[in-house]
């Protein structure tokens, strides 16, 4: 047979709480649940004047808190500004580094002004020939790919852009590469060669 009993017990804590223990009894096992309720007789209920004083004190404390937060944010921003500035040692090391770079650049400039040839004509010709060959191969391969791609996608039911994405193909334009700029460079190289002959 199932029945419920109610037991009232007072616990000795810093806050005086009343401890209610409800026990449900079953034939084979028991269950318990605890409910804590604060004693109401320990609290002082303030009157209207005291409530008004508490509200004023609360608003005054809120203003002080806002002022403190503002002061903290100003100090933090000043600290960040100071941390972003270089120390004297860092400035000196940066200065020596920049002076060495300036000296290297001046040496290179003096070599160029004195007519020192940095690249041999044979090396220059080899590089220009290699560049011309690579641009021509690029042009041929692009044309061959375009012909194959047009044949493949001519009767395909899929959208060309979706099919291209599915295969993971990228055109030159997709990666911001323009063959025309390289072709113009090659044409100017050929023009210089004709003038020098």
Automatic annotation (TrEMBL):
<dbReference type="GO" id="GO:0003690">
    <property type="term" value="F:double-stranded DNA binding"/>
</dbReference>
<dbReference type="GO" id="GO:0000794">
    <property type="term" value="C:condensed nuclear chromosome"/>
</dbReference>
<feature type="coiled-coil region">
    <location>
        <begin position="47"/>
        <end position="115"/>
    </location>
</feature>
<dbReference type="GO" id="GO:0010774">
    <property type="term" value="P:meiotic strand invasion involved in reciprocal meiotic recombination"/>
</dbReference>
<dbReference type="GO" id="GO:0120231">
    <property type="term" value="C:DNA recombinase auxiliary factor complex"/>
</dbReference>
<dbReference type="GO" id="GO:0007129">
    <property type="term" value="P:homologous chromosome pairing at meiosis"/>
</dbReference>
<dbReference type="GO" id="GO:0120230">
    <property type="term" value="F:recombinase activator activity"/>
</dbReference>
<keyword id="KW-0469">Meiosis</keyword>
<keyword id="KW-0233">DNA recombination</keyword>
<feature type="domain" description="Leucine zipper with capping helix">
    <location>
        <begin position="119"/>
        <end position="175"/>
    </location>
</feature>
<dbReference type="GO" id="GO:0000709">
    <property type="term" value="P:meiotic joint molecule formation"/>
</dbReference>
<dbReference type="InterPro" id="IPR040661">
    <property type="entry name" value="LZ3wCH"/>
</dbReference>
<keyword id="KW-0175">Coiled coil</keyword>
<protein>
    <recommendedName>
        <fullName>Leucine zipper with capping helix domain-containing protein</fullName>
    </recommendedName>
</protein>
<dbReference type="Pfam" id="PF18517">
    <property type="entry name" value="LZ3wCH"/>
</dbReference>
<keyword id="KW-0539">Nucleus</keyword>
